[in-house]
């Protein structure tokens, strides 16, 4: 189980995705706050590798015992990898949302949307449990 | 919002509290250092034991000279032939045969009963009780004891053995039987009932003694220990457990728009209650008879096995070919079976076991394939 605190090395959207940029490759996942609201995650399906997305587009869906939710990506680009471990065991989202529970990687071509995201401190104060 | 007498315990156990029918209830418990959650609690109940606070359920004492007659008029099931110490599941309908609630009736004495009703229906049922009482000019006292009592369910394969350490009698109870334990000024009603598909008991007790009674019942069990035989379980697990066990839930399978016969709960509906000894007509009986006489209900409640791991949710349409033939009422990824299950109403012609249909998820191309399977999905060994 990772720490519930949002790591400082990434930015956060109001719809509770974290975006971690490494060169032009973005890794995306859901925040601890989001998975707590969802309760036990039972299913995750991301857009397949090669899918082109625009900033703010849905990039997949997650389902929990309680609800089905879209997952959005603040940046635009192309899906390059989907986390197969999460597909196999969606509970990784609950146990390690900032680590092993990452959802998808995107080669970013439009990063404008990322500047509208929050840093970790802002996200944590906005969505304090 | 209302709080049960166990509220402080929920907080101490890490309960994630939500509004349920006006009550602040735990949907799940978070364990210190992470872990826990709905699926863990579900498995805990299936393999060992769980403790549920069900104090939000309504508990209404019905007593007096006409108590029996009053309940015969309310309940779809025969009440008069119940023995003392027996509980019985029944539906309560309105005049058109739609379902107002599903209840458990406890026969405490000749002229004294306890009716356990759904939290979300308590106010509505109390008003209905009063109307039926007044219409029949019945001598009956209706006493809502919900907030002066608590109710706790202990469920799971190890529960009866644990209870056996504090009571020799309780493990000898048959299903749907109860015993009343008088301890000094304290009265406990312990019934071998539940809503999980596992063996276990439900205990009704005075609100003020809940701490003491929990200590007594649980004796050596530390609910917070990682390897405890009994652990707290929340409403989330309660829902997935009851769904695997094929048990209907009010607001999902049972509604005012659902006629009682469509549920297939035939054991709980006696359309001949106006015959023989203690003959009475229950509210909704004539409407239900007309449905039965005109060939039975148009749709039926079925269990559905869903292909894949996506969840079919309440309100999703069930489609056969290009026709909408039904609707999903509940669905989940079954933690025990590892596959998606659902319940729903489908046209009688599509309700046979093996019948294959599609479930519309609201997203084109993402339809789910559903096959009718017998209920329950899960049966305890």
Question: What's the short version?
Answer:
The complex is a heterodimer of chains A (129) and B (381). Chain A has helices spanning 32-38, 84-88, 92-95, 120-126, and strands spanning 11-12, 17-22, 25-30, 41-46, 52-53, 58-64, 68-72, 76-82, 104-110.
What would you note in describing this structure?
The complex is a heterodimer of chains A (129) and B (381). By secondary structure, chain A is an alpha+beta fold. Chain A has a single domain (11-111), classed as OB fold (Dihydrolipoamide Acetyltransferase, E2P) (Beta Barrel). Chain A contains four helices and nine strands; from the N terminus they run βββαβββββααβα. Chain A has helices spanning 32-38, 84-88, 92-95, 120-126; strands at 11-12, 17-22, 25-30, 41-46, 52-53, 58-64, 68-72, 76-82, 104-110. In chain A, the strands form two sheets. Chain A has a six-stranded antiparallel sheet. Chain A has a three-stranded antiparallel sheet with strand order 4-6-7. Chain B is of the alpha+beta class and 381 residues long. Chain B has two domains: 1-295, Probable tRNA modification gtpase trme, domain 1 (Gyrase A, domain 2, 2-Layer Sandwich); 298-373, Aminomethyltransferase beta-barrel domains (Elongation Factor Tu (Ef-tu), domain 3, Beta Barrel), CATH 2.40.30.110. Chain B is 19% helix and 31% strand. Chain B is built from eight helices and 19 strands. In chain B, α2 packs across α7. Classes of the chains: A alpha+beta (129), B alpha+beta (381). The interface between A and B is medium-sized, with 14 and 19 residues.
């Amino acid at each position: 189980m990772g720490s519930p605190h949002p790591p400082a090395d990434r930015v956060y959207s109001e719809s509770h995705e974290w975006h971690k940029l490494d060169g032009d490759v973005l890794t995306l996942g859901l925040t601890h706050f989001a998975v707590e609201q969802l309760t036990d995650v039972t299913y995750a399906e991301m857009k397949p590798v090669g899918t082109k997305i625009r900033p703010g587009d849905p990039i997949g869906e997650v389902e929990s015992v309680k609800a089905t939710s879209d997952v959005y990506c603040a940046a635009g680009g192309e899906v390059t990898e989907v986390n197969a471990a999460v597909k196999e065991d969606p509970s990784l989202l609950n146990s390690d949302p900032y680590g092993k529970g990452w959802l998808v990687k995107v080669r970013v071509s439009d990063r404008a949307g990322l500047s509208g995201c929050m840093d970790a401190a802002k996200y944590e104060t906005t969505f304090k449990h | 919002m209302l709080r049960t007498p166990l509220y402080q315990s929920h907080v101490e156990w890490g309960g994630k509290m939500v509004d349920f029918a006006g009550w602040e209830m735990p949907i799940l418990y978070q364990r210190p250092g992470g872990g826990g959650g709905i699926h863990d609690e579900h498995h805990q109940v299936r393999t060992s034991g769980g403790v549920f606070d069900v104090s939000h359920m309504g508990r209404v004492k019905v007593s007096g000279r006409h108590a029996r007659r009053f309940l015969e008029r309310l309940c779809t099931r025969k009440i008069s032939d119940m023995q003392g110490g027996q509980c019985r599941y029944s539906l309560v309908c309105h005049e058109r045969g739609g379902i107002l609630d599903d209840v458990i009736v406890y026969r405490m004495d000749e002229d004294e009963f306890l009716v356990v009703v759904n939290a979300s229906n308590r106010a509505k049922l109390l008003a209905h009780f009063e109307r039926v009482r007044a219409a029949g000019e019945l001598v009956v006292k209706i006493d809502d004891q919900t907030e002066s009592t608590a109710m706790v369910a202990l469920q799971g394969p190890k529960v009866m053995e644990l209870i056996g350490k504090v009571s020799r009698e309780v493990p000898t109870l048959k299903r749907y039987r109860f015993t009343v334990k008088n301890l000094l000024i304290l009265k406990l009603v312990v019934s071998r009932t539940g809503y999980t598909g596992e063996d276990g008991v439900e205990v009704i007790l005075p609100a003020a003694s809940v701490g003491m009674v929990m200590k007594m019942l649980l004796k050596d069990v530390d609910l917070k220990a990682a390897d405890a035989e009994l652990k707290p379980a929340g409403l989330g697990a309660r829902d997935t457990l009851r769904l695997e066990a094929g048990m209907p839930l009010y607001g999902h399978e049972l509604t005012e728009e659902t006629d009682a016969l469509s549920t297939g709960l035939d054991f709980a509906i006696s359309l001949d209650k106006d015959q023989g000894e203690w003959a009475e007509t229950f509210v909704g009986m004539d409407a239900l008879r007309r449905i039965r006489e005109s060939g039975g209900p148009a749709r039926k409640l079925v269990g559905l096995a869903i292909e894949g791991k996506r969840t079919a949710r309440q309100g999703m349409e069930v489609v056969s070919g290009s026709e909408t033939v039904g609707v999903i009422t509940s669905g989940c990824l079954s933690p025990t079976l590892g596959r998606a299950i659902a319940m729903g109403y489908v046209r009688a012609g599509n309700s046979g076991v093996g019948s294959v249909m599609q479930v519309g998820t609201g997203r084109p191309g993402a339809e789910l394939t559903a096959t009718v399977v017998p209920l329950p999905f899960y049966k305890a060994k």
